[in-house]
Amino acid sequence: MKVKVLLLLSCFISINCKEQNEVDCTAKSFVVTATAYNSLAYQTNSNPSITAFGDSLVPGLRYIAVSRDLLDSGLVHNTKVKIEGFDSLFIVKDKMNRRWQKRIDIYMGNDVGKAKKWGKKKVNIEYCILFKDSLP
Questions:
Q1: How many other C-beta atoms are found inside a 10 Å radius of the C-beta of residue 50?
Q2: What single DSSP character describes residue 56?
Q3: pLDDT tens, 87-127?
Q4: Are 90 and 79 in contact (CB under 8 A)?
Q5: Which of 15, 43, 45, 69 has its CA 20 to 30 A from that of 7?
Q6: The model's pTM
Q7: What structural domains does the chain harbor?
Q8: What's the rounded Cα separation, in Å, for the pair 30 and 46?
């Protein structure tokens, strides 16, 4: 299992997944609108530390929420995502209200100032969809 995870991470680094013999996946890339959110009730709901997928949010984690149209593009729960402007990967752990399209929301813990400073930007995201026969 650890070997597959390391191979998958190397796939994200190169993002040319088809050249990786050990991991069969398809690279995807989109330009999306990226905003930021915090785990605060006024920004989410009465239980701001639980995502729409049922995961717990803890400040410091590199999580994102995705618009539901991106779920259909393979950007599903637990997908690792490279976001332009960041050095490390983020994990899809939440989904956004149905009104949004081609959008991600970057989790920024409880730091409202940091989220406001991020604002709203167009960014490129990259991720890899594993083929079913290469899943563990």
A1: 15
A2: B
A3: 999 999 999 989 999 999 999 998 999 999 999 999 999 99
A4: no
A5: 69
A6: 0.76
A7: 27-131 (2.40.40.10)
A8: 32
